[in-house]
Amino acid sequence: MAATNPYRSYRTSAGHGPDDVHRDEREAPGVAEAYCVKCKAKREMKNAQQITMKNGKPAAQGTCPVCGTKMFRIGG
């Protein structure tokens, strides 16, 4: 009898994979929103700048409009 992988049914079942992502929750282009660790809330960054990290991936860097803490978000 062949051994079966108990996780195989989870990965192959409908609705449980990386393809089942909610596409309607995308951000509008140009809106730089990030999580402020001091305010503990998701806010739109002030003075947001697009940067490139050392590994070549895009990121956004700015400040929180409420408390002035530096904010950072990985991704384009």
What would you say about this model in short?
This protein has a domain at 28-76.
Structure description:
The protein has 76 residues and is mainly β. It has a domain at 28-76. The protein has 1 helix and 5 strands. It has one helix at 8-12, and strands at 33-36, 41-44, 46-52, 58-63, 70-74. The chain has a 3-stranded antiparallel sheet with strand order 3-4-5, with no helix packed on it. A two-stranded antiparallel ribbon has the order 1-2.
Task: Lay out the secondary structure.
Layout: H1 8-12, E1 33-36, E2 41-44, E3 46-52, E4 58-63, E5 70-74
Antiparallel strand pairs: 1-2, 3-4, 4-5
Percent in helix = under 10%
Measured by DSSP, the beta-strand proportion falls in 25-35%
Radius of gyration: 19 Å
Q: Compute the separation of the termini in Å.
A: 48 Å
Characteristics of this structure?
mainly beta, 3-stranded antiparallel sheet
